Amino acid sequence: MMTPQVITPQQMQQILQQQVLSPQQLQVLLQQQQALMLQQQQLQEFYKKQQEQLQLQLLQQQHAGKQPKEQQQVATQQLAFQQQLLQMQQLQQQHLLSLQRQGLLTIQPGQPALPLQPLAQGMIPAELQQLWKEVTSAHTAEETTGNNHSSLDLTTTCVSSSAPSKTSLIMNPHASTNGQLSVHTPKRESLSHEEHSHSHPLYGHGVCKWPGCEAVCEDFQSFLKHLNSEHALDDRSTAQCRVQMQVVQQLELQLAKDKERLQAMMTHLHVKSTEPKAAPQPLNLVSSVTLSKSASEASPQSLPHTPTTPTAPITPVTQGPSVITTTSMHTVGPIRRRYSDKYNVPISSADIAQNQEFYKNAEVRPPFTYASLIRQAILESPEKQLTLNEIYNWFTRMFAYFRRNAATWKNAVRHNLSLHKCFVRVENVKGAVWTVDEVEFQKRRPQKISGNPSLIKNMQSSHAYCTPLNAALQASMAENSIPLYTTASMGNPTLGNLASAIREELNGAMEHTNSNESDSSPGRSPMQAVHPVHVKEEPLDPEEAEGPLSLVTTANHSPDFDHDRDYEDEPVNEDME
DNA sequence: AGTTAACTAAACACTC
DNA sequence: GGAGTGTTTAGTTAAC
């Protein structure tokens, strides 16, 4: 809001990204935050009224007689209000400090990236008021549109490099609730370069994506008009741009940190993979998230775990051992059930991408079914179709685990291709290729999670702030007709905003879906509809379309490694049973 | 305890 | 005939 101590959506984003919070913590945090913001809004309104009253009285005094008493009274009131405002700032500062103490927010004194921290220290309410007006004046109308999304559009960069000002540190309080982080260059002429394209970063789904705006623009032209009229080069736009710059800066810093962290983790795991205490861990799984949470929050013994103390699931989200011990890493037993299929959630590129290096180098069996892996291999291909040999190659390329025992897993691949109706063999010019029938894939029996509300809630939250949603994941979710959780289901409006932001990000992917029963499934090769060589007899499952359940488990891919049985052929390992 | 799904293994047919 | 591919069956295991 008007003061910097309010947690901005950026800070919230940072918290969500950097600090893994439990849903309960988030709930409390957000509630506190909202209460503060509400208070500030009320104070702001009050302050405005006071000022208006003061000006009115001054005018009256100029025109009519003098009423020094009343003037004095108003001045006194304003002074009191200013004190109140300062008090509010202090409260917010305490709030932030409290968050820091709780480990929920990391604010380093020398860190310039937290945009609003130094703001308004020594700034008097009048200045704040002015800046506030500058930044927010144009938002009043926009708020009436029920604008409530929190786009995290950070794909553009701001070219503004003018000297920093106080304005640059002001965060629009409504932007705080909305959380828009879009960057827009104040240079109008830059728009002309984009006018030819309707994929303007500030325009999507018929609405203006300028922070705090979301005005409905029927077409691109009206959007451009709106952009030029409502978001012209002025102090407000510049200020918002500066804010966005800092946001981007912060996120880049965060990204760099996380990359570094990932690198360190990879290095650590590779180096120590032969050491007893190594705990190699795929990175895309909830368990890893919770692991990092516990590692950052609490006891240092959370990581690594020794093989002699098999790791219990850190959260109830995971149902199996959440940490791969060294033992399990080298003596991975047959995995009878893998979570990606267990909940009918197809493996996503996000999963593969995030763990790519891990699985490429570590001989760890990926916690996905053959069917999921085959499907992923096929969907990753440009033509959405692969020959058997190409599927083999994908397996060996992506997973060190599949560089051994070729006969076994290749047989399994062939077996799966033949067995599952979702894999369709298509005669191609260059021979036979395999494609995926998404409809059939979705028809595979989803298994239900026992109805533990807190568990589901936990998973939802985990999903909201832990799961990177890249296009493939979104597509996967969309393919499952997954309705993203609603604001209500999040139990918190701000989290709901996050969810809605994600939802909005997903809209593109969702549009072409939700029609599973039709023949328009994504990823389906046009060819397969032409030349299905045969029809596999897989019993149709009456229980279909359990989207919501699929959703909550999307964030829940968990390694499911057997520790007690060896999957390899080596007699040595077999002896270890 | 029964059912289901995933996995492994293997046999067999077919093509090149 | 051998290798690769594709289909099918059987047995085991784990989850539900």
Sequence-ordered SSE layout with sheet pairings:
Elements: H1 9-18, H2 23-63, H3 68-101, H4 125-136, H5 139-143, H6 166-169, H7 173-178, H8 189-194, E1 203-204, E2 207-208, H9 220-230, H10 235-271, H11 286-297, H12 326-330, H13 339-342, H14 349-361, H15 370-380, H16 388-398, H17 406-419, E3 423-428, E4 431-436, H18 438-443, H19 453-466, H20 471-479, H21 487-490, H22 493-511, H23 547-554, H24 571-575
Antiparallel strand pairs: 1-2, 3-4
Helix pairs in contact: 1-10, 2-3, 19-23, 20-22
The chain binds a DNA duplex (16 and 16 nucleotides) through residues 319, 334-338, 341-342, 369-371, 388-389, 407-409, 411-412, 414-419, 425, 432, 444-445, 447-448, 450, 534, 562, 565.
Keywords:
577 residues, mainly alpha, two-stranded antiparallel ribbon, two-stranded antiparallel sheet, 3% strand, disordered N terminus, disordered C terminus, DNA-binding
Helical run tally: 24
> What is the helical fraction, as a range of percent?
40-55%
Task: Work out the radius of gyration.
Answer: 28 Å
Rounded mean pLDDT score: 52
Quaternary:
single chain
Coarse shape: elongated
- In total, the number of strands is 4
